[in-house]
Amino acid sequence: MDRNAAILLADAAERAGMRRFLVISAMGVDSQPPPGTDPVFAAYLKAKGEADADIASRPGPDWTGLDDSAPGDADRRPR
Question: Whole-model pTM?
Answer without folding.
Answer: 0.73
